[in-house]
Amino acid sequence: MRYLGVPSLSFANRIPAYRERIEAALDAALPDPSLAPQRLHEAMRYAVLGGGKRLRPILVYATGEALGVSPERLDAAAVAIELMHAFSLIHDDLPAMDDDDMRRGRPSTHRAFDEATAILAADALQPLAFQALVANVALDGEPDVQVRLVQLLSECCGPNGIAGGQAMDLAAERQRLDVAELEHMFRLKTGRLLRASVLSAAYCAPGIDTARLHRLEVFADALGIAYQIRDDILDFTTADHEHGSDSVKAKATYPALFGLPAAAARADALLAQALEQIADLGAAAEGLRWMTNYTVLRSM
Length: 300
What we know:
Blueprint lengths: L8 H21 L8 H11 L6 H13 L3 H23 L8 E2 L2 E2 L1 H4 L2 H20 L8 H15 L4 H10 L7 H25 L6 H28 L3 H8 L5 H5 L1 H18 L8 H12 L3
Antiparallel strand pairs: 1-2
């Protein structure tokens, strides 16, 4: 797999500032751990503030750069999407789901606390994500934008999003899926949140036209599928428990079903398709191009 387009070091240099920004915003959005119920609040903060690449919120900000949207207008969407992501990871790790004991190099939430507390923490993070969107003072006086953001996020977590994709993933264990079935599962389980990361910034861009939105939807769809294929490749080629567990459970993954060369070729094709959709944005999209390359070609 290779870089397509010209990755820019300048955006890489801006990532620490974006990470610092989202960490501060997440910390402010989460409940005070000194207040009751303390154990629930501690579990929520443990799940959200326990590290991670913050790929999705940074993708929000990178899309905002490409469209000329200020970070202040995007903070609430970035927070909401990362809270929803944390919610999904808590559920993924539960014994009834993927049964993973480790997450980001430390015990998963249900191991650090207990299963009941982990479930409640995830249940609390989901509505907190929507609360962040409706309480966004930067969008005061723009209820139409807020409603679109709420609708976008709600689509991510329901039967046509994370929940549906996870159900398909569980049902697909030890099954032989064709390419279309596998990529549809990827589109729901993984792609919906990446799509929301891109489109939330687009919805915050005043006067964005329908043609641009369509190109960004195609971009996000390709990116989401490519991201999951890359995850499958990492799972297939590493002995790391967090990635390697998929192979042990005989999950439906791209390399397992179609081989590593086909998986790499498909990810390359999707990467090229994604970059083509944002080519006309020019220099403004250098950060979005950087994130696209990183997302598909990352090594961890």
